[in-house]
TrEMBL record:
Record Gene3D superfamilies: 1.10.150.130, Integrase, DNA-binding domain, Intergrase catalytic core
Tyr recombinase domain location: 202-391
Pfam families assigned to the protein according to its UniProt record, in alphabetical order: Arm-DNA-bind_3, Phage_int_M, Phage_integrase
Keywords in alphabetical order: DNA integration, DNA recombination, DNA-binding
Organism the protein comes from: Acinetobacter higginsii
Lineage, broadest ranks: Bacteria, Pseudomonadati, Pseudomonadota, Gammaproteobacteria, Moraxellales
One GO process term, biological-process aspect: DNA integration
GO molecular function: DNA binding
Protein name as annotated: Tyr recombinase domain-containing protein
Family to which the UniProt record says this protein belongs: Belongs to the 'phage' integrase family.
PANTHER family membership: PROPHAGE INTEGRASE, PROPHAGE INTEGRASE INTS-RELATED
Amino acid sequence: MALSEAWLKANNGKEREAVEVVADRDSMSVRISPKGKIVFQLRYRFNNKQERVDLGTYPHISLKDARLEATRLRGLLDQNKNPKLELLVEKEKNINPVTFKEVFLMWYESYCSKNKKEHESIKRMFENHLFNKLGNHPIDRIDISDWLGIFEELAGRIPGTAKNLLSNTKQMLKWAAKRKYIQTNILADVYPKADLNITSIPTKRVLTDDEIVVFYECLKWSRLTTKNKIFLELCLIFACRNGELRRAEKKHFDLKRKIWKVPPSNHKTGYKNDKTLIRPILPYMEDLIREAMELSEGKYLFSNGKNIDEYLTDPASTALPNSVIGWVKRFKKETMEHWSLHDLRRTARTNFSAFSKNRDIHEIMIGHVLPNNQEVYDLYGYVLEQAEVYEKWIEKLERLKG
């Protein structure tokens, strides 16, 4: 006969002389101990062997739920999976679940640190905004509401960070889903604009000539270290990405041939085109580079303080504009509109247009990919053409310095 809740309730805790097994249906039964403990079990054959697996103890699991679990486990047999082993795997996952932080660190080591130039900044972003809230949570139990609660709050305060963090979290969850740490990437259909109301407004900050004058006054009179002053000035002159200069090794500067080679691993588009950027080194640039080499003991042109085997960190470099702005406010009693290292790059690129009408040269100078497959067929470096623009740019900067 099939079991019923009434029968189970009547026999639960009822002592008997020996173990008793009572069948239900579909290979499920209950095993009752001499002291009346009732355990649901499922019998099945796997690999031509008789097997038995416990489903749970009554009344901690109801008859209805036991039957549902038995049905689920019988479904595993159709997938050529042994229910007993699958339950052991599930139990292990529940006892020692893989946490969000653990998955992030695996993704960071295997993918992020090897493929993303700003991987250190990405790691700090996760540490600052996600680890304290979700770091120890089992990653497969983090609900969409948990994610949205965090991202919506960040979007209201720091939309740029929220957008960047969402993008990297989605990539990490996609990586995790492929490796079966989670069933699906639940953030796959979450978008900055549609779901977080983040609207991207292109930054248009360019330093005026008057601001460049003040910039150089700061480099002359402030207590910024000589190394940091050189770093700022080279960012302004070359219009390079600050990461290209931070990661630059001394050997990348060929002072005999007067060129700076930026290997693919050191610039943003390198992973796409595997191309080395080549920039000319003019005499004034060379003087700054030689001075920086003398100040740095390690292999990098700009080492990370006393850690000579490490290059200048992103936080250390991105803090430099605030040092300049702070000096202006304190010593010149003026308010300088906020600018970033990337704004120095934009300032130079804007000025390049005044010296030459060849936009392709300007794009090459700042390391952008040329349109319409030009880089596939045109491998000429345009070093001399770049030098002509740089020369006019340096002449203007010299005039502004006074």
